[in-house]
Design goal:
120 residues; alpha/beta; single chain; six-stranded mixed beta sheet; globular
């Protein structure tokens, strides 16, 4: 599955408002499984690099609350530097201004508020 197809598939996900990141992970796992999408959860892709979901060669990272842009960029840049990653999707509660590519790899962002049906 290519990154654009996965991104469009994830946009169909309608989540209840979550208060716990672990519950959010479980909901995403159920969604991926229901679509027949194979994944690895909490996958170590390099020393000190464990991504929330690895779907083929696409990394999916989930952030709740108000993540600090510098911290998120640092984390995503480490993931993008890994050879087994072909692209990244950040699913975050609040939208961050991020580049379209990191290390030449596509970076997509999906808003949890949008998936919750909330216009912010």
């Amino acid at each position: 599955m290519d990154i654009q197809t996965l991104f469009l598939t994830l946009q169909a996900l309608r989540l209840p408002i979550q208060t716990d990141e672990h519950e959010l992970h479980r909901t995403v796992q159920e969604f991926l499984t229901s679509r027949g999408i194979t994944y690895e959860h909490e996958c170590t892709i390099a020393p000190h690099c464990r991504i929330d979901f690895l779907i083929g060669t696409i990394g999916l990272e989930i952030k709740r609350g108000y993540p600090q842009k510098a911290s998120v960029m640092n984390q995503l840049s480490r993931y993008a530097a890994c050879t087994q990653i072909s692209g990244l999707i950040l699913m975050s509660e609040h939208t961050l201004r991020l580049p379209a590519f990191l290390n030449g790899k596509p970076l997509y962002q999906l808003s949890l508020a949008r998936l919750w049906g909330i216009a912010l």
